[in-house]
Amino acid sequence: MANYPMRGRSSPAASGFPFGTLMALSLSVGVLAALGWQAWRFIAPLLAPPAAPQFPRAVRVDPLPSPTSLPSSPSVRVSGTESLPAAGTIDPEAFPPGSRGRVIEPIGLAIRSQPSADGAYQGGIVAGETVTVLEYSADGRWQRVRRELNGQEGWVRAGNLGPVEGGAAVASATTAATPAVESTPESTPLPTRPPAATSIAPGAQGRVIEPIGLALRATPDREGAYIGGLPMNEVVTVLEYSADGRWQRIRRQNGQEGWVRAGNLAQE
Questions:
Q1: Burial level of 163, CB count in 10 A (0-12/13-18/19+)?
Q2: Higher pLDDT pick, 110 / 44
Q3: pTM for this one?
Q4: What pLDDT, on the 0 to 100 scale, is given for residue 11?
């Protein structure tokens, strides 16, 4: 006879609840939560932003007292309307026009066409050379001088001349004597210049006797365009003289022609 389950009764397998599985699951979740909490306690400080720096409280400092003004020197003017005297300015009474002076600037002086640093450069005067003072600029910072070596005239900075040793204090405007420079450890004696012929006839040859050479210009004037230079001992041919006799037109051996200062050639 077949066995049929009776109504109203449940099967033991159907009525059983898995309490063991539920407890194991709960225990696993608790362990994982504990581990997560411990990990968070370790990681949380690393993720937190750094604390704001704490600085000591600022202390107010009273302003420093203003410096006292120094008394001005009686020999120096600092007002806005009066300027300091320029370096190189001298008393014109020390070297009045017509007096002779010796260049004391170790590196020499530059000769310019105007009493200004912007004036055209016309040559140089070596230390120890003697010049004649012709006049002063309006501000007294420049002197127009004539070189006794070759008669060249131009403007130089004032305050760079000293007394001539063993020479007269004042010379005439036509004096062109060669100065004697004393040899000292600080200065080099100037080259000896041979005597020049008083006149070289046009067509004759002459030799340059100026130790520093001659400037060749396009016109018989110190403002004439510079077209070249003639070294000492070069031989040239005299072609003609200017109307005032102060310039010579010459021809070089390479065919170049121009004007040079007269009195700087010796008869060849």
A1: middle
A2: 110
A3: 0.34
A4: 52
- Token code pair at residue 162: 């000293």
Question: What is the spatial distance between Cα 142 and Cα 156, in angstroms, rounded to a whole number?
Answer: 6
144: closest CA among 160, 156, 128, 152? 156
Q: Tally the residues of the chain.
A: 268
DSSP characters over the chain: ----PPTT---HHHH---HHHHHHHHHHHHHHHHHHHHHHHHHHHHHSPPPPP--PPP---PPPPPPPPPPPPTT----SSSPPPPTT---TTTS-TTBEEEE--TT-EEEESSSSTTSPEEEEE-TT-EEEEEEE-TTSSEEEEEETTT--EEEEETT-EEPPTTS-SB--TT--PPPPPPPBTTBPPPPPPPPPPS---TT-EEEE--TT-EEEESSSSTTSPEEEEE-TT-EEEEEEE-TTSSEEEEE-TTS-EEEEETT-EEE-
Scan for tokens 């005239």, then name that residue.
153
Q: Where in the chain is the domain with CATH 2.30.30.40?
A: 86-182, 205-267
| Superfamily (CATH) of domain 86-182 | SH3 Domains (2.30.30.40)
Distance CA(130)–CA(170), nearest Å, equals: 12
| Domain range 205-267, CATH class | mainly beta
Q: Which is nearest to 230 in space by CA: 176, 150, 156, 174?
A: 150
Nearest to 19, CA basis, from 9, 30, 31, 27: 27
Bridge partners for 157 per DSSP: 142
The Cα-based distances of 79 to 73, 87, 89 in angstroms read: 12, 18, 20
Contact 129, 190 (CB under 8 A): yes
Mean pLDDT, residues 95-123 taken together: 88
Q: For residue range 119-135, what is the model confidence (pLDDT) as tens digits?
A: 888 888 988 899 999 99
